[in-house]
Amino acid sequence: MGDFNHPDICWRDNAAEHKQSRKFLECVNDNFLLQVTEEPTRRGAMLDLVLTNKEGLVGDVKLKGSLGCSDHEMVEFKILRAARRAHSKLTTLDFSRADFGLLRDLLGRIPWEKALEGRGAQGSWPILKGHLLQAQE
């Protein structure tokens, strides 16, 4: 959503007078976007647009008057989908409960020079990670 500044676009007919506005319309159409603002938002022109890629995703679009000294109407709309929480399968270690003295002792027993000899950063990481995970158990 935003102020797209193409006052010559007729959204009902999907047409525009100026080349730049026709390019914008082409971009909107090429990306399968829908424009859902239905009333002029500034001096009879529909400049402030709400674009969506799914029909029925955005609704209840209303103009709410101007704010302060702006000559644009505020556009209010609702997203018509319930928010879903993403359930991550990523596990993390809880370091707030760690015994760092024990961790330091366990990791200090590892002959690091021998364990990492001849390996670069890419080869060393799995070894370090393995020892950290083993120590946390």
Automatic annotation (TrEMBL):
It comes from Grus japonensis. Pfam families: Exo_endo_phos_2. This is Endonuclease/exonuclease/phosphatase domain-containing protein. Residues 1-75 form the Endonuclease/exonuclease/phosphatase domain. It comes from the Eukaryota. InterPro entries: Endo/exonu/phosph_ase_sf (IPR036691), Endo/exonuclease/phosphatase (IPR005135). Gene3D superfamilies: Endonuclease/exonuclease/phosphatase.
